[in-house]
Amino acid sequence: MGDLDGRIALVTGAATGLGAATARALAAAGATVAVTDLAAPDALAAEIGGIARAQDVSSEADWAATMTWIKSEAGGLDILVNNAGLWLFKPITETTLDDWRRLHAVNVEGVFLGTRAAIPLLAERAHLWRGGTAIVNLSSVAGIEGAAGATCYNSTKGAVRLFTKGCAKELAAARIRVNSVHPGVIDTQMGRKLVDDFALAQGIGDNEVLAQVAAMHPLGHLGAPQNVADAVVFLASDRAAFTTGSELVVDGGLTA
Ligand SMILES: NC(=O)c1ccc[n+]([C@@H]2O[C@H](COP(=O)([O-])OP(=O)(O)OC[C@H]3O[C@@H](n4cnc5c(N)ncnc54)[C@H](O)[C@@H]3O)[C@@H](O)[C@H]2O)c1
């Protein structure tokens, strides 16, 4: 028996990185998992016995179509993981309005649109589970602490953090729990891009920066995607039945 037997979950941005690890972990815990990304993650869906669809999280129409699809293909929705996101490392003076809008369209508007679209389906099945249904939003340590060169990303992840808390209060009566996860630097394509960007900015090699970034985390290394996936599974499950509006840091002590 898994913690999530009988649950139907949707993970956005699931083609790679934290989304793919989370989809695998939700499936291992017993959930039926729908995975979406800009291109449908068909191979992952086949691997975990789930379903896949192409979806741009910044598109309102795509969210409506995705909800219709999951209702007809899987029968409803119990867990939404708003994972898709973009990284940007640029000084403010070099950040264009297009950069700013592109990042906010995916990282912030995508979370708003997904939450709003999923509420009717999540409310419909909330009575089935002791801990109701759940939304888990991927914020970041960058949604808690500022970082020079990452101000636009800070803005998006800070917005996700407080949007999550407001939603937790507004949706509690419908028995929908809403929590955010705040990873430190995790070894994914995005984590590697961050290392490349820091290396370029400091004019030093990737290996040197990798050591620096590892040392920023008191536990002494980058996180693994599985570390974040485990936190998402916990927040999605009845083990977190009294947990809503919380910010779960998975950062090796970075913000401690
Ligand atoms: N890796 C880290 O160190 C780290 C740390 C803190 C927070 N996060 C957050 O965790 C989430 C996942 O990060 P990751 O490291 O797996 O990133 P990643 O870049 O490795 O993967 C992100 C996925 O999102 C998809 N995506 C991008 N724009 C999209 C859109 N408009 N619609 C649908 N899908 C889209 C990409 O195609 C990609 O598959 C992001 O929200 C990120 O900001 C990551």
Q: What does the main sheet amount to?
A: 7 strands, parallel
The portion of residues assigned to helices is: 40-55%
In CATH terms, the superfamily of the largest domain is: NAD(P)-binding Rossmann-like Domain
- The radius of gyration is 18 Å
- Ligands: nicotinamide-adenine-dinucleotide
Task: Report mean pLDDT, rounded to a whole number.
Answer: 98
* Percent of sequence in beta strands: 5-15%
CATH hierarchy: architecture of the largest domain:
3-Layer(aba) Sandwich
Tally the helices: 8
The count of DSSP E runs of length 2 or more, i.e. the number of strands, is 7
Q: Encode the helix/strand succession as letters.
A: EHEHEHEHEHEHHHE
Task: Note poorly predicted spans.
Answer: none
Strand order of the largest sheet: 3-2-1-4-5-6-7
Fold and architecture overview:
- The chain contains eight helices and seven strands; from the N terminus they run βαβαβαβαβαβαααβ.
- It has 256 residues and is an alpha/beta fold.
- The chain has two domains: 8-184 and 223-250, 3-Layer(aba) Sandwich (Rossmann fold), CATH 3.40.50.720; 185-222, no CATH class.
- The chain has a seven-stranded parallel sheet with strand order 3-2-1-4-5-6-7, with helices on both faces.
- β2 (32-37), α2 and β3 (51-54) form a beta-alpha-beta unit.
- α6 crosses α7 (206-216).
- The chain starts with 7 loop residues before the first strand and ends in a 6-residue tail after the last strand.
- Bound molecules: nicotinamide-adenine-dinucleotide.
- Residues 12-13, 15-19, 37-38, 55-58, 83-86, 106, 138, 140, 183, 185-186, 188-191 line the site of nicotinamide-adenine-dinucleotide.
